[in-house]
Amino acid sequence: DAGVTQSPTHLIKTRGQHVTLRCSPISGHKSVSWYQQVLGQGPQFIFQYYEKEERGRGNFPDRFSARQFPNYSSELNVNALLLGDSALYLCASSLGGRGLTEAFFGQGTRLTVV
Amino acid sequence: GDSVTQMEGPVTLSEEAFLTINCTYTATGYPSLFWYVQYPGEGLQLLLKATKADDKGSNKGFEATYRKETTSFHLEKGSVQVSDSAVYFCALSPLNAGGTSYGKLTFGQGTILTVHP
Predict the structure, then answer these.
(1) Where are the beta strands (DSSP E) in chain B?
(2) Where does residue B43 rank: exposed (0-12), middle (13-18), buried (19+ CB within 10 A)?
(3) Cis peptide leading into A8, omega within 30 of 0?
(4) Least C-beta-crowded within 10 Å: which of A42, B71, B94, B96?
(5) Mean pLDDT of chain B
(6) Chain A CB within 8 Å of residue B103 CB
(7) List of residues 6+ apart from B82 with CB closer than 8 A
(8) Per-residue pLDDT band at A79 (split at 50, 70, 90)
(9) Residues near A24 by Cβ (< 8 Å), separated by ≥ 6?
(10) Which neighbouring-strand residues pair with A53?
(11) Which residue is closest to B105 within chain A, CA to CA?
């Protein structure tokens, strides 16, 4: 079975540009979460979607937005990029719903803003 | 809000040494607790988990016990190998009042483990 897939794997953008990151969850998983991992730190929660609805939002500016599609894949969009947005962006999928649902992570997208 | 605190600083050990990485948490209710491992250049992999007080999670020789009274989930391994060198993250996932988990995780800052031959 395919795991969580993210694209692209690496990306270089210029300050002020816009970026779209994509994530395909494990088949059958209905919840997708996005995390930002700055070098040397733990992942920070950005967004969570379940059944195509936003279920949680972390402490990130409005330049960050996301959505989940009917096939449960997801996009993370970042507008007006800043140098500080350079990080590894991780997508995690889980079954969601009642009880413990483990999160499985993709390999991440390495975004560099210059 | 929820938070996770891991021991400060990198850990350097010789092969076959005993490992402890401390983790404490703050959360309302009864969160599930996890240890994730990140090898160089890779994403996060689930190492072990525990869902309720006194549960012991174990995998690949690693163990951690959910201690509600001390709000801790310390990671231990009796004999580390060079291949265990990685960054280890403690994390929690809350259940809402309805017992539903959407998979959101709160992570600690990570502990770098280096094991020398």
Answers:
(1) 3-6, 11-14, 19-21, 23-26, 32-38, 44-50, 56-59, 62-65, 75-77, 86-93, 106-107, 111-116
(2) buried
(3) yes
(4) B96
(5) 90
(6) yes
(7) B15, B115, B116, B117
(8) very high
(9) A2, A4, A5, A6, A73
(10) A50
(11) A45
The one-letter amino acid code at B65 reads: T
Structural contact between residues B89 and B35, judged by C-beta atoms closer than 8 angstroms: yes
Which residue of A42, A50, A106 is in closest CB contact with B109? A42
Residue A19's alpha-carbon distances to A36, A41, A105, in angstroms, are 14, 22, 20
Reading the block at residue B26, the tokens are: 């703050």
In whole angstroms, what is the distance from residue A45 CA to residue A69 CA? 20
Q: How far apart are CA A64 and CA A54, in angstroms?
A: 13
